[in-house]
Amino acid sequence: MSSFISSTSTVPEIAKVPRHIAMIMDGNGRWAKKRFLPRVAGHRKGLETVREMVRACIDLKVDYLTLFAFSSENWRRPADEVSFLMQLFIRAMQREVARMSDNNIRLKIVGRLDRFEPQLVELIEASQKYTENNTGLTLTIAADYGGRWDILQATNELIKSRGADVGVVSEEALAPFLAMAYAPEPDLFIRTGGEQRISNFLLWQLAYAELYFTDVLWPDFDTVALKQAIASYQSRERRFGRTSEQLVNA
Ligand code: IPE
Ligand code: IPE
Ligand code: MG
Predict the structure, then answer these.
(1) Could you tell which of 25, 39, 67, 71 is best to mutate to test the pocket of ligand 2, judged by most ligand atoms within 8 Å of the CB?
(2) How far is it, in rounded angstroms, from Cα 175 to Cα 204?
(3) 74 partner at 20 to 30 Å CA-CA among 125, 166, 168, 199?
(4) Around Cβ 108, how many Cβ atoms within 10 Å?
(5) What are the structural domains, with CATH classification, of the chain?
């Protein structure tokens, strides 16, 4: 179970390099459209950015990288785009998990999973198992993930574990059942593609994350752009509800 500090229960230690970066990878479709290419060409190119981000986070000594790959609402997209994304996900895991493991990466997938085809579910389970003892970067892919789903599934799991008379639910009781209980809360949230919204990503876990929005489209996002986001993070005063004066005195 989780031994990580909750940003609302205790003031966490502020890491100079974010321990956990969560990203909404947005703008693939627009990147393709600008080039008169089909939307899926943007998704394929976006996978190259994923590889670059993984390498960069290892180099920068970030411990947790979480990428929003498919939201619980992305099922609303045209069937052929959904199917392309599923195939891309399958192929990426088939091709890259061994290499990830060589790089000591622990791979985690969070999301509903029960709406995926069995081949994908098997691959997800095998990939997680294959990398579970690795001690380097924890790479989480959020797939068929929704922040509201997560809070509700955690609540239901808590009730299941405690029996019907669970009583008043506390933050401490619920947190261990959240999908990402194995990770500290994100320090830095990055959304590419110009939109300034959370789109049902980590609603609970982003409580005190520093938010960074950039117009750069995901396929164009690179290590230089990541370092700019981290520099922005480092320039901020993380007060967690306290005053600036309290921070100076501490
Ligand atoms: C993000 O890019 C990828 C997924 C949501 C799977 P989009 O496909 O949303 O790209 P835009 O927002 O249409 O440009
Ligand atoms: C958010 O992007 C989800 C992912 C990147 C997986 P969307 O493109 O789906 O978000 P909205 O619809 O613009 O809010
Ligand atoms: Mg989008």
Answers:
(1) 71
(2) 9
(3) 125
(4) 21
(5) 20-235 (3.40.1180.10)
Amino acid at the residue 182: Y
The arrangement of strands across the sheet holding 20-24 comes to 106-110, 138-145, 64-71, 20-24, 188-191, 210-213
- Whether pTM exceeds 0.85: yes
Cα–ligand 1 centroid distance for 235 (angstroms): 29
104-140 pLDDT tens trace: 999 999 999 999 999 999 999 999 999 999 999 999 9
Question: Tens digits of per-residue pLDDT, 4-38?
Answer: 888 998 888 888 999 999 999 999 999 999 999 99
Integer-rounded Cα Rg, in Å, for the chain is 18
DSSP codes of every residue in 228-250: HHHHHHHTS---TT--HHHHHH-
24 lines ligand 2 (CB under 6 A): yes
Give yes or no for a contact between 203 and 24, defined as CB atoms under 8 angstroms apart.
Answer: no
